[in-house]
Structure formats: C-alpha cells, structure tokens
Design brief:
- This protein is mainly alpha-helical.
- It is built from 18 helices and no strands.
C-alpha cells in the first residue's frame, strides 16, 4: 500500500549524498519512512476514528477540514500524483532517449499517462485493484533482484559524505524520509487497512490493533530491508555514474549497469504500470474525499480537475516536483507527527480539546517558519526580512532548529500548557 514512486527515488539519492555515513542516515530515514507510517495506521485504529478528518477535528472542526484537504492535495494532484508520471518517465522512457531533459517527450508521455489515469479512475470494476495486486509484488521483486545483486557486486567504494550528512547524518536521513509522504498517506489510507482486518471477522478494537500491528511489523521490516539495499546501491554508485539529479536516474542507470538494456526495459515496463496503478488510486481517493466534502460537485468533475492539475504539474519534471514539495513537507510533517502522538496519548488527558489545540499551537509557528524559509531557499531568492530575523534568533535560542527539528520543544511545551489548562478549566472534549 505504501510502496510507490517516492519509495523508489529517495533512498538512492540519500545513499549518494550520505556515502560512508549511509548507516546512521538510513536509521533516520527508517524512522520517518517506515516507523511513522505504521504509527499513522495504528493511530487511526487506536482512536477509533472513521477517517483523518474526524481525528484532526479533535483540534477543531475547521482544522480537521483544513488539515485533511492539505493531506489529500499533497498526496494527490499537487505532488505525489504528478510525481508518479515523472518517475515513470524518468525510469521507463528517458533512459532510451539519451542525455537531456526531453520536455516534449515528457509532455507527450504525460498526455497518454493521464488520459489512461482518467479513464481508469472513472471506469467501473476492479481492474486497477487486480492489476495493482500483481504489479506491486512484481515491482518489489524486480527492485529486490537489482539491489541484492548490487549489494554483492558494488559498483565502487563508498564516497565521503556531503557536509550535511557528515555533520548530522541521522537527522538529515530523518528529514529525507519526509519525501516519501508515507506518514501523510498512512492517515488517509489507514481505514482501508482497518476495514480489511474487519472483513476477516475481527470487531474488537484490541484485536484490530493487534492484527494490524503484527501485519504492519512484517511489512515494514521487509520494506526497511529493501530501502537499506536501495540506499546502499546509491551510495556505491557515485564512483561509476557520479552524482545524479534524482533517484530515478540512479535506478535507471544502475539497471543498465548490471543488466544492460534488457534489464532496464523490464524494470521500465513494471515501473510505468505500477506508477499508473498508483496514480489512479490517488486521483480516485481524492475525488471520493472531495465528493464527501462538497457533495454538489460530481465525482467525474473532481477527477477531471485533479487529472488536469497532475498533468500540468508533471511537466515541471521530477527534480522540480521534489524540490517544491520540501517546503510543504516541512510544514505538514511536524503537524502530522504531533497528531499521531496525541492520538496515542489521548486517554492520558481525557481527550481534552485544549491539549490538542495547545500542542498544535506550539508546533505550527515553527513549522510555518521552516516551510516559508525552505520555500525561499528553493526559489533561490532572499527571504523576507522577518524570516531572516526569526531564523537568526531561533538558531541561537531554539535547540535542533538548525537541523530542521526546532518544532519538537515548542510542541512539548504546548502539550504541557494544554495539560495544565485542562486540569484548571476542564477543557472541552473533542467531537467524536
């Protein structure tokens, strides 16, 4: 469920940058790329929420809607859906076109990709589900063959790490794991996992939690092994192919290096079809959510809108999509982590709304500053004066801020303040 395009492209990029610091970097990556998604699924199950909007509404009703909309748009038409098309192009088509960006080829490929996505999204039946059940194992198997072979036949010795990975490899790996967006997706798609468990005859929440946790641990252990091998392959590739613009290029060139163009062609076919299947699932899920949110707009209209947005943004190219997703992730991930933790701690403070609100109020300002500062860095422009002033002050005053984790202590402080206020005034119980 959570092995998609982002899972393919981030570990090899991290491996190239981390070099000989790959082990601590990988540990950090696994926290946000594997551990946090599992916690997200379990948080929805533990909270007995029917969806992410109901859980987030424990902060307030408007926050529940705003946070849910932001999550659906992020894993849908703004970032992950267009990223699917560009990953499919960069691995499936670009290696056979030679060097260069080939924007015309990308545009043509995206037209076909999203016409198919639209058609499959509005078509009845379970074709996509059935194909996806075959393609995802095939994708995992092909990647496993590639990376295991690479592990026993490394391309070159590991390089020295980049300055950021040399200084803080664990933290840098942890933030790199944001890019998979799996923690965001886990809150959206957790109900699918929970309903699958219920369909097996389990109704007690304790049983649902237990089975979900056990199955999840098996799945994330396997994914962690795959990630580690992919990252190591990236780390050992620099001496042969140099530093690549993104992870898709590393994978494609690694397949060519080890298995020639036949191996690259097989990987290309599997990746393109798997990305198409994922794209359909994402666009359909977004359409279904927005129909529930705004019933007056038909499902087909939402699908057309999200398909068009995905098509337009995909033409920016994979590296640009990755680049501009970072500011939003610096905002959304702290809010997501805090919400997941609060869901597990809910009984400790009796579900008082004031605790949710104060904790988020402690988290949000730093997350907003981080996101805004990162956006200006991505745009390669001078940040606003207030951002520069706040940034300079926070670097000296707030632990972990320079590493991108400055929100941790304010979130903890907000939680404590919320606890105190709930004891004094009782607070308000969250809806649901």
């Amino acid at each position: 469920l959570f092995f998609g395009s982002g899972n393919l492209i981030y570990p090899p990029t991290m491996g190239q940058q981390a070099g000989s610091s790959i082990v601590p970097a990988m540990l950090g990556f696994l926290v946000t790329g594997v551990g946090l998604p599992l916690m997200g699924v379990l948080a929805i199950a533990y909270s007995r929420s029917r969806d992410i909007q109901q859980l987030a509404s424990r902060v307030s009703v408007w926050y529940g809607v705003a946070f849910s909309v932001a999550l659906y748009l992020s894993i849908g038409p703004l970032f992950v859906a267009p990223r699917n098309a560009t990953v499919a192009f960069d691995i499936g088509i670009k290696p056979f076109l030679g060097e260069g960006d080939h924007p015309g080829w990308l545009a043509g490929f995206a037209v076909i990709f999203y016409l198919l996505s639209f058609w499959l999204s509005v078509s009845p039946g379970k074709l996509v589900d059935r194909v996806g059940k075959v393609l995802t194992p095939a994708l995992l198997l092909s990647i496993a063959i590639l990376v295991v072979y690479a592990a026993f036949n490394p391309m070159a010795p590991l390089q020295a790490p980049s300055p950021e990975y040399a200084a803080h490899p664990v933290v840098k790996g942890l933030i790199e794991g944001y890019g998979t967006m799996d923690a965001l997706a886990s809150l959206v798609f957790a109900i699918i996992v929970i309903n699958a468990v219920r369909s097996m005859g389990f109704e007690r929440n304790a049983d649902i939690m237990s089975l979900t946790a056990r199955a999840g641990l098996v799945a994330v252990t396997f994914l962690a092994i795959v990630y580690a091998f992919v990252a190591y392959m990236g780390a050992s590739s620099v001496g042969v192919m140099g530093f690549q613009e993104n992870g898709a290029a590393v994978l494609a060139k690694s397949a060519t290096h080890y298995f020639g163009y036949p191996g690259n062609f097989l990987l290309a076919v599997i990746v393109v079809l798997a990305c198409l299947s994922t794209s359909v699932g994402l666009i359909t899920s977004c359409g279904e959510y927005f129909v529930r949110l705004i019933p007056g707009v038909p499902f087909r209209v939402w699908i057309i809108l999200f398909t068009l947005i995905s098509f337009v943004l995909s033409n920016a190219g994979l590296s640009t999509i990755i680049k501009f997703s970072v500011p939003l992730l610096m905002l959304l991930y702290p809010l997501t982590v805090v919400l997941i933790l609060l869901a597990f701690l809910n009984n400790l403070f009796g579900g008082r709304q004031v605790v949710y609100a104060c904790t988020l109020l402690g988290t949000a300002p730093i997350a907003i500053i981080d996101g805004w500062r990162t956006l200006h860095t991505m745009l390669e422009g001078a940040p606003d004066a207030w951002i520069l002033q706040a940034d300079a002050w926070l670097k000296g005053a707030l632990p972990f801020y320079a590493e991108g984790l400055g929100w941790v202590l304010p979130a903890a402080a907000g939680f404590v303040v919320g606890l105190v206020l709930s004891r004094i005034g009782g607070g308000t119980r969250p809806a649901g």
